[in-house]
Design brief:
Elements (H helix, E strand, L loop, with lengths): L1 E5 L13 E5 L1 E2 H11 L3 H5 L10 E5 L2 E2 L9 E2 L5 E5 L5
Parallel strand pairs: 1-7
Antiparallel strand pairs: 1-2, 3-6, 4-5, 4-7
């Protein structure tokens, strides 16, 4: 089954300016892989070369940070809310 993912403004260039995309439920890693197959370059924008989530990318499943769950192995069941939030640094 699929779920809808809101794409942050800074990543919309990759998705052809789509603000919401539909993905199949699975693990966060599988979903990022789906997005990269559909929108080349998505993976490199959210993950480091070693496959870990970039420091300033936060992903939430039903409001919970995946870093406190099973990280990229966190399951995103059908009907869940999946959010990608870009952290803003500065002072």
């Amino acid at each position: 089954m699929s779920l809808k993912l809101t794409i942050p403004t800074a990543l919309r260039k990759i998705t052809g300016n789509a603000d919401v995309v539909e993905v199949q439920s699975g693990t966060v890693q599988e979903i990022i892989g789906q997005l990269d197959r559909s929108y080349s370059g998505f993976l490199s924008r959210v993950c480091e070369d070693d496959g870990k989530l970039r420091r300033f990318i936060n992903i939430y499943v039903n409001g919970e940070d995946i870093r406190f769950l099973e990280n990229l192995s966190t399951r995103v069941p059908e009907g869940s809310e999946l959010s990608i939030i870009l952290a803003i640094a500065g002072g």
